[in-house]
Amino acid sequence: MRVTDSSALVEGGRLKRAPLFPSGYLVPFVLVTALFFLWGIPNNLNDVLIRQFMKSFAISRFEAGLVQSAFYLGYFLLAMPAAILMRRLGYKAGFVIGLLLFGAGAFLFWPAAIVGRYGFFLFALFVIASGLSFLETASNPFIAQLGDPESSERRLNFSQAFNPLGSITGVLMGTVFIFSGIELRPPQIAVMKAQHLYDAYLRSETMRVVKPYLALGTIAIFWALLILRAKFPRIQSEHEAGGDRGHFRELFRYPHFWMAVAAQFLYVGAQVGTWSYFIQYVQEFTHQPEKVAGYFLTGTLGAFGVGRFSSAWLMRYIAPSTMLGTYAIVNVALVAFGILHPGWAGLWAIFATSFFMSLMFPTIFALGLKGLGPNTKIGGSLIVMAIVGGAVLTPVMGLIAEARHSIAPAYVVPLAAYLFVAGYAFAAAKSRRTADAVAIQSEA
């Protein structure tokens, strides 16, 4: 059944589709869309870091899961300050400050490796994530508002489609440049300790993370300079009468927005948890080495990228909320299969969830911002703060895995998250149809 997209307009009795790309703003659109690619790299390097730090610092799954906690706490704590700053200085300032923080955090990996302290690395990741919080708080609403509002979901899905390309790059960087391929068994560790070589081995494994992050920091600073020199438009809400001066209390008038915040919290937790422990799922149930498991993770991100681009196209014909709900239900079934049938079949089921989760973040984001008007920046910052779900649910999965002595039962966490996302999607579709019916009656 063909479902008409909300970006299709009727003009003079003919169907007219809202344009996807903003006219006259190609340079800022490209510069900001590239940021979606750029922040995908450190986001998914974390999945490699979890495995690498378990090895180089000899820590548990739960302790390694704190990588995601430190990272997503940066998102949570800096999103609101980012929104407040951008209300005064505009989106461009948010992009520049975010990139500078990103670069500074990446450069901190060098002294962290020299000192050899796990806590120092967690602080560096927090600084990186603080910068990415600025970037996401600015980029998502900027792209959504840079053009016709009726095509905001499609436009944001298009820009977000470059994020998994960055994710693939991040995992490949980690697999090739961070993973050494040396996985010691307990007897080998005992021999190295007896020969006083084990500490040197751990140090060499720790130092392997430095070069990729120095490269990332250099790119971030360079991109900040490009944006600083470019001319950016003022989004309409920034120069309307009264300006973009929304208030937090006004958001309580929008129940669909608060449902979006909850859905985003659970979705990000599901996404981050799925990828964080996927390498361990592969190794536990198929007994593949870490590099092969890393390439499997890269493949899931490839499926994620294909899903992003295809969903941006499919939304020309199918309502975004309908696609969101359908994809969430499919993922419930896939994750359930992966839990009940761990092994090669379960691996491919978990693998496939990346395709169907691909549209969730931008679609939830765009649906949540609908109709917020001058409250868009504050609303956008709260949805970005919901990314803290990655900090909360990933360690929970680690605790479940340790308690059950297997990673498969831990995937019940993303399963529950997808159930909620499905409910949100169909509730959003219902509220949208009601709003459209009211609008039609008022025009009649």
What does this structure look like?
The chain is mainly alpha-helical. It has a single domain, classed as MFS general substrate transporter like domains (Growth Hormone, Chain: A). The chain has 20 helices and two strands. It has helices at 26-56, 61-89, 91-107, 109-115, 118-145, 152-160, 163-178, 186-194, 198-207, 210-229, 236-239, 255-276, 278-286, 290-314, 320-340, 344-357, 360-369, 376-385, 389-404, 412-443, and strands spanning 8-11, 14-17. Strands 1-2 form a two-stranded antiparallel sheet. The radius of gyration is 22 Å and the shape is globular. The two termini are 28 Å apart. Residues 1-16, 238-244 and 435-444 have low confidence and may be disordered.
The CATH topology label is Growth Hormone, Chain: A
Which outline best applies?
Answer: globular
- As a percent range, the share of helical residues equals over 70%
Mean pLDDT: 84
Question: Are there runs of 5+ residues with pLDDT below 50, and where?
Answer: 1-16, 238-244, 435-444
Please count the beta strands (DSSP E, at least 2 residues each): 2
Strand content: under 5%
Number of helical stretches of at least 4 residues: 20
Rg measurement, Å: 22 Å
The CATH fourth-level homologous superfamily? MFS general substrate transporter like domains
Number of domains: 1
Architecture (CATH level 2) name: Up-down Bundle
Distance between the termini: 28 Å
